[in-house]
Specification:
Strand content of chain A: 25-35%
CATH architecture of the largest domain in chain A: 2-Layer Sandwich
Oligomer: homodimer
CATH class of the largest domain in chain A: Alpha Beta
Strand order of the largest sheet of chain A: 3-4-5-9-8-7-6
Chain lengths: 334, 334
């Protein structure tokens, strides 16, 4: 699958970024098949957005620096994926990116479309809980998927996203202690930095669409008092600001890669080892809030379906499917 | 759970219907706790809609006859259920009752709310196919459910609805040969009279809502030529018009009853016998369109999960889950 040009602005930004020295308006115009006037107009726009672009007669343009902002141009110019996040719908402010993605799904937007917002006014957590996503500090994004597998496989996509997020944070910030709390919270130093809300619209044997929503505490410096014991941000743990665009792009890359592997077997057998390596509950006592009665056991890892394997004190092995129960460990409620 | 008054009009109609002789405006007023003026206004409305109501001084009102129409007043006045279809949203014409029910779901309408339309302009079948629902002849309805069980149980609701429809048609029209084609088409004389489209909005471990859409060919007298071999109406098979309101009410009664039983075990073990008694495929050869390769066998019935049990010629038993495959028997494609 070849990359196709979705946004001229993003492509021009990509050319500027990939050029060590200078690139002329004519070169860009030839490469992208757009007029020189169009190139010039985009350069003006980019400068207005805070990109520092040097223009030298007979040499061309040179990108000196770019602003620390989230924007669709910035995201799409740096995106290297084939489908995941290739088309970005960016909002400075929106109620909920999952709701936006649902709307795009109904409008027929393609598999892999990504909604990103700098701020959500009504961010959603699981089961209708709220998720706080302040301006300029957080990442709120929702990926629209149109899988051709059966609805009962969809919950595993949540695990794939959790691993993707964990891998990218680890890759970009080697000094951070990244863990996953089963099934899908990502923690740093035992506090939550990322929540995932997967929503599906389906018939019994046919998925209309799946939306994987991801909220990341990136650059917050302060949390409400009642959350301070449970939540943190990458910036707080790292002691410096992180590049949100790099995180988003990295997550799309990992997710696209993992999705391809997953689609072959439709189970998480290829991901058990990596998931377990992040699993904060592994080898620890967990309390299973089964509707038929609570019980405790030691979490041993996940199985090929993504269920948590729990060993009871009498040696019995139980598997806890995504959502069948809640798990309470020493780290509070999932 | 007591029945609560949702529509004064429906309750007044119910009183008129349940009274053999005459009931005075004062009696109705006292019974329902509404003013006599309100009672009088509703009587006027009903007469305008075609209800023939006799009014005799010092005796009161007497319902002589009622029109053969679908209306929320007619439906709600005859509805005897506790929750299924207790609140009816009736449209003379709408694009799709499933879409309407989705909208109501987002607006927070309660479990059991029912959308009914006399005609759909964009009726939906499974997987985006179309469903024809002409004015004055068909039944198009969508029941909104908010189950508290897990999403993987929801496909079985389709089977419950199929049995409900089959039971009601059989009960009201004993002379018709009613069958179910697995998983959820209802046939009369081997032709389709009812299709069911179940749609769900869910998180991996939490159902937002389920919408069970039901389309019934009730009083059509003619089908497009390309459908004549596959589809029929109750009127065509019976040779006379059927009462659509009675069908809708009956289906709500059966579904409410079956839903209560289903909710106890969350499987269809209590329904296997009755389902199999309607199963047109039972004991017949079926062709399973498995993505891994077609095969044929003899359908033996369903199991506790609603899957079709198929015996291959070498004696092997296979179970075909809802949606895993298509089944082609001697009756065309499901």
């Amino acid at each position: 699958m070849d990359r196709k040009i979705i946004s001229v602005k993003a492509e021009i930004l990509r050319e500027l970024r990939n050029t060590k020295g200078y690139i002329s308006g004519q070169e860009i115009s030839d490469k992208l098949g757009v007029s020189r006037t169009a190139v010039w107009k985009v350069i003006q726009q980019l400068e207005a957005e805070g990109y520092d672009i040097e223009a030298v007669t007979n040499k061309g343009y040179h990108l000196i620096s770019y602003p620390e902002i989230l924007s669709s141009g910035e995201l799409m110019s740096r995106m290297t994926t084939l489908w995941a996040g290739r088309r970005v719908y960016y909002h400075k402010e929106t109620e909920s990116t999952n709701e936006d993605a649902k709307y795009l799904a109904e409008e027929g937007m393609e598999h892999g479309s990504l909604v990103v917002a700098d701020m959500q006014t009504g961010g959603k957590g699981r089961r209708g809980r709220t998720w706080v996503s302040p301006a300029g500090e957080s990442i709120s994004m929702s990926l629209l998927l149109r899988p051709d597998f059966l609805p009962d496989k969809a919950p595993m996509l949540t695990l794939l996203m959790a691993i993707s997020v964990a891998e990218v944070i680890t890759g970009l910030h080697r000094d951070l202690d990244v863990k996953i709390k089963w099934p899908n919270d990502v923690l740093v130093n035992s506090k939550k930095v990322c929540g995932i809300l997967t929503e599906m619209s389906a018939e019994p044997d046919y998925i209309h669409h799946v939306i994987v929503g991801v909220g990341i505490n990136a650059n917050q410096t302060l949390f409400p008092e009642e959350l301070q014991d449970m939540a943190t941000s990458l910036r707080i743990e790292k002691g410096e600001k992180v590049d949100r665009t790099a995180l988003i792009i990295g997550i799309m890359e990992y997710f696209e890669y993992y999705y391809g592997i997953f689609a072959e077997h439709l189970d998480v057998s290829d991901f058990v080892d990596i998931y377990d390596s992040y699993l904060i509950n592994k080898g620890k006592e967990v309390r299973i809030l089964d509707p038929k009665g609570e019980y405790t056991g030691v979490a041993e890892g996940i199985n090929d379906s993504g269920a948590l394997i729990v060993k009871l004190s009498d040696g019995t092995i139980k598997t806890v499917s995504t959502g069948e129960v809640s798990v309470r460990g020493i780290y509070g409620y999932v």
